[in-house]
Automatic annotation (TrEMBL):
The lineage of its organism: Bacteria, Pseudomonadati, Pseudomonadota, Alphaproteobacteria, Rhodobacterales. SUPFAM superfamilies: UDP-Glycosyltransferase/glycogen phosphorylase. Its EC number is 2.4.1.198. This is Phosphatidylinositol glycan class A. Transmembrane segments: none annotated. InterPro entries: Glyco_trans_1, Glyco_trans_4-like_N. It comes from Profundibacterium mesophilum KAUST100406-0324.
Amino acid sequence: MTASSLPRILLLSATPRSDRGGVQRMMDRLVEELPPRGLTPVRAGPDETPDSGTRIDLEVGAGRGGRPTLSALPGAGRSLLQLARLLARVRPAVVNLHFMTGAAAYLLALRPVFGYRLVFSGHGADLLEPTPGMAARLPGFLAAADAVTVVSGELAQVARAHGVPEDRLHMIPNGADTHFWCPGPPEAEPGRIVASGRLLPNKGFDILLEALSGLPDAQCTIAGEGADRAELEGSIARLGLGARVHLAGHLEPEALRRALRRASLFAMPSRREGMPLALIEALACGTPAAATAIGGIPEVLTEATGIVVPPEDASAFRAALARGLDHGGPLSRSAARARAELFSDEACYSRYAEIFRTLAAR
């Protein structure tokens, strides 16, 4: 079978590639991993370039009842036409929407015209904390999908509560490339902590800074960019952490891997998560974690690989960091690596490919 005759899978997300979060990194890997599994991925999103995919910026706003407001109707019409043109060109067998937005309405409306199968992939906040407009329509969207994938047991429960039947629900934890994310030089440095993620409130970096203010021997690098940078810089100055906490900005994978290997502990103080890929990548580098007990985090960490505490509690997180940095404590770098192997991307992307192939054959 030639590449042109392989089933085409349209991977679509309203999340910009520039966010560099877990959703976009998963889509990066799907683009790489589907062709060896007999599928042709086509990627589309709001800031794709001709080299990476197709640019499509769908207007997804809706009123409180989940319906477009009168003023939004022209934008909705343009979005529907834009998506129809893309579908006519690509002719996908399956469309996979990552992170639930109002784009689901356009995909459902056009499905009878183009005859594709539709897979909705929930990643976290899209199912746990939808906007009022999305909350009104989410049960109908999910029930109408040919398949729904989620990244954690918590999200699977939400999908079930919205009426998704078991035969269409697939829990697929995020998978890390454990060949790339692996132990190696440099050696871990005592007292060094790394955290990574977008600088947004849900990541809880303000809690991390409060916790670090009571650990005078700890050094911390926070990798990532986002709207909260200025506020976090102000907190670093206010707490007197300028010599010990570095906002490193976005790090390329090689630089982040090097930082994780140098760290004695990975910190994830999040208020909200699905199945955090950053946590699995840290474990794969042999770096244990201190994290909050939300989302899929407790499904990943064990007593030997991480310490979990309630969210929004800087004192508890400070104690978790102190315990995690204690070289006589319970955490093990070898156990962290072994745990990450259970979340390798081989199993993750094979599951996605199996779902896509099955639907494409119908």
